[in-house]
Amino acid sequence: MTAAAPPRASISVRNARDPVLVCAAIVIGWQLLHELAGDVAITAPLPTLSHLLHMVGQARFLPHLGETAMAFGQALAISWIGGVVIGLLLGGHKLTGEVAEPVLVTLYSLPKVTLYPVILLLFGLGMQAKVAFGAFHGIIPVALFTLNAVRNVPAAQLRAGRAMRLSGVQQARHILLPAALPEVFAGLRLGFSLTLLGTMLGELFASQRGLGFLLMKAIDLHDVETILAIAVLISAFAVSANMALLAVDRRLRRGAAPAGHGA
Amino acid sequence: MRTAAAFATPVTPASAAAPAPHARLEGVTRVYPARSGGDEVHALGPISFDLRQGEFFSVVGPSGCGKSTLLDVLSGLAKPTEGTVTFEGAPVDGKVPDGVGVVFQEDASFPWLSVEDNVAFGLRRAGTDAAETRRRVEFAIGFMGLRDFRRAYPSQLSGGMRQRVCIARTLVMQPRLILLDEPFGALDQQTRLLMGDELLRLWRETGATVMLITHALDEANLLSDRIGVMSARPGRFIEVVETGWDRERDSSLAERSEFGAVTSRLWSLLRGESLRAMGQGQAAEKRA
Predict the structure, then answer these.
(1) Which residue of A153, A158, A159 to mutate against B (max B Cβ within 10 Å)?
(2) DSSP state, residue A208
(3) Does residue B198 sit at the A interface (CB-CB below 8 Å)?
(4) b/e map of B34-63 (b: 16 or more CB within 10 Å)?
(5) Which H helix or E strand runs over B84?
(6) Do A179 and B112 lie within an 8 Å CB cutoff?
(7) Under an 8 A CB cutoff, do B75 and A163 touch?
């Protein structure tokens, strides 16, 4: 009846078709840009990809990749855990949340890159500064989403819990948590992208290792092929991670109204 | 045949001489503390009244008269500022007692759970064993006509069906007193009438005492044994109207001439109060 979902097969076909179409469009657009701009600005897709494969195969490339992965992993952990904890603390108390939200929004709107020199002075050149800068980008949106997720749990659901004689712990575990989870997760997804952005920015300036460092070096040498190869590598990682997170997100929202993807 | 035997609660025969009240309010008031720039709001009372064992009692009154506050206080969701509330002889003190079920006006179904899991929610939290939970959920789902939707999520259901889920979720706890706060307020008129019949059937078959808050006079009239008519804020009962309907009644009652007489009576009691309530609202708007 109303509960019937569209046939499963059509979903999987569509799921497979769309990314393939998007990839094809990107490759065609890339090729066209290459025809227009030439090797000086944009190398062609095929040589770039083969250069990427060659690069990844080299032993001296791996430490750079490891360095970036390490920095991003730590920054992401700080953004996610820190953001959720801050959001829960602020969202749990009405007045605190109301005061904190505009402060966080303002902080978030700062052009963070201008503060990077301060972060470098605080943390020194190296891993710590990158982690701090990545976390600095991601933690505020995660906190904001969590704060609002907690505040937006419908009062009627909490009242229903009290009417069913739930204890405080049961309320938190069985109503607050599942009710807030989809929006918290939306924050984690956004936090992921922004932490990646922050970490990469951090690596572009004043670093001695990592993909960002390789990128800067390639710019100095005008090695367009390497620049594009690294861009492709990072984009592929970001896109596939985002798709995985989106899949979880959809699963969490299966109960929510289909139109409620906002925020 | 569907039977409510499994759900039966001891029902005192209506003929028994002065049965003990099922719930009692004595001198209950509720005052909301002053908020910045405003005065404190005396929302309710003082109210004293008895809810009889097994009756269907409705509360009508002008908007903002404290009907919902009355329900909150009676259910234990809110503490009275003064006075006492007792349920089955024991005091209710800011906690919902065992045996009381509440259905709200807003959709309070849990969107992350299927219909089945929504209905089982309270039993699982209370630690009821799996077989018993299954049996009771099965009954409540069947009773509320949700069999075809058991695996659906609330977002896939209409407002009326979602409210059925909430009623089933309360029913499954086998409440002896069911409090409903304008549960059909968001539904269209036809759905309301049908839901009213469902509610009557539920009331008859479970033997529970029901208190329904509503702003629809004909709905109160149709469903109730007694109707408490409340004044404008602070809400008090101006009068309690006895309808005298048979226990076996349904929405066809609306065709009878006595029905119109009761509705007229309710309106004549409420007309002045509703005007006063409107005046209060406008005064509050001017102040704001």
Answers:
(1) A159
(2) S
(3) no
(4) eeeeeeebebbbbbebbbbbbbbbbbbbbe
(5) strand B82-87
(6) yes
(7) yes
The 3-state DSSP class for residue B73 equals helix
pLDDT tens-digit readout, A117-150: 898 899 988 899 999 999 999 999 999 999 999 9
Taking the C-alpha atoms of residue A96 and residue B154, their distance in angstroms, rounded to an integer, is: 32
Q: Determine the structural domain holding residue B228 and report its residue range.
A: 21-99+215-276
Burial of B169 per CB tally in 10 Å (0-12, 13-18, 19+): buried
CATH of the domain at B76: 3.40.50.300
**Residue A54's pLDDT band (cuts 50, 70, 90):** very high
Instruction: Give ipTM to 2 decimals.
Output: 0.81
CA nearest B225: which of B200, B211, B242?
B242
Q: Is residue B136 part of a domain?
A: no
In CATH, the number for domain A76-252 is 1.10.3720.10
Q: Cβ–Cβ of B156/A179 closer than 8 Å?
A: no
Is B205 within a domain? no
Residues 6+ apart with CB under 8 A from A97: A90, A91, A147, A150, A151
Residue B59 within a domain: yes
Three-state DSSP class for residue A197 = helix
Token pair 């993909």: residue: A211
- How many structural domains is chain B composed of? 1
State yes or no: pLDDT of B12 exceeds 60: no
Map out the domains of chain A as residue ranges. Answer: 76-252
Q: Is the Cβ of B148 closer than 8 Å to some Cβ of chain A?
A: yes
Calpha distance B143→B162 (Å, rounded)? 14
Residue B243, domain member (yes or no): yes
C-beta atoms of B110 and A157 within 8 A: yes
**A255: exposed, middle or buried (C-beta count within 10 Å: 0-12, 13-18, 19+)?**
buried
% of chain B beyond a pLDDT of 70:
90
Count how many residues are written for chain B: 288
Instruction: Provide the sign of the torsion angle of the four alpha carbons B86, B88, B89, B93, taken in this order.
Output: negative
> Residue A172 contacts by C-beta under 8 Å, 6 or more apart in sequence?
none
CA atoms within 13 A on the CB side of B132: 12
Strand partners, B159: none
Phi, psi at B248, each rounded to 5°: -85, 85
Taking residues A33-43, report their average pLDDT: 89
